[in-house]
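Problem 12. The chain below contains 318 residues. Write out its predicted structure in token notation.
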Amino acid sequence: MGYPDFVCMGFQKCGTTTLYQLLKQHPQVALCRDVKEPMYYRVPFWSLMGRRFYRWRYFGHIEEGDTRLLGEVNAGLSYGGCARKIKRDFDPDTKMIFMMRNPVDRSYSAYRYFLARGFLPASVLHYDKAHGHAEGFDHYVRSVLEDKRKRSQIMKKRMKYIVLSQSNYAACIGEYLDTFDLHNMKFVIFEEFVNDEHAACRDIYDFLGIGDVEDIDYHVKSNEGAECATSYLRAKQFWLVKGCNYCLYDLCYAMRWMPGFYRKFRRYYRDVRRKTLLHDTDKSRVLPQTREYLMEYFDADIRKLESLTGRDLRSVWR
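Solution.
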């Protein structure tokens, strides 16, 4: 006991938060304690805490004899280095769920999300503010893909190029195939998931070997807020404070050991967020020429993904 029976590996901006909220309601499932996305396998020094820490921190609330399935939902487990650690610790029979959407739409959603949180260079934010999201996104992806050095580093420096790296689904999934059997992998298409959450979840329940239940609220819509940064420096401030928050509630479990201090820090965190992130009124969509350009870039990865899933995804995502 202590390692999950299943793990939702991602990808970011593909509906994992909504799936987490739905699985949390299922009586036959027990998810990580107090944390949606554990940093243990995502942050290099976290794993120095040891495997006993992982089992205690995230599944220490599970009592002996509890028959529920243990699960982790973590959209960041396709970052570089995560696969090596997970292959070392997880049972080869662990079931894996991968949630994927049209790679262009995922990239655009990630661009807007991470731009507001200080992950992208200041020049990108300034250009975006001057020209809008659609033009800014087009300018950004071309600046990366038309530079041979940057393009070659997308999958090597995944955090730096997070807008594009996690949309190369087949490349990320392929890192697990030498240890985990393809038959223990479930591929969920975001567009089908949001169209009928209940039907998609029934399919996931069958994959996990658990039953459907009547009292789950399938009208959950999570992580939808569109936000923009007030300034680059504010965005960087929020990025740093958010990192401190992860350390306190995830690694230090501060809400248990230092509840008074953590409450004060959360007030500070919310204050920084309020001053940093504003409601985003830019509703622009991906430019047709940007979509065509990116689909050409992702075409080889989509073809590999079609071979893995046995589905014609280009028709779904055209």
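Discussion. The chain has 16 helices and seven strands. Students who got a different answer should revisit the alignment rule from Section 12.3.
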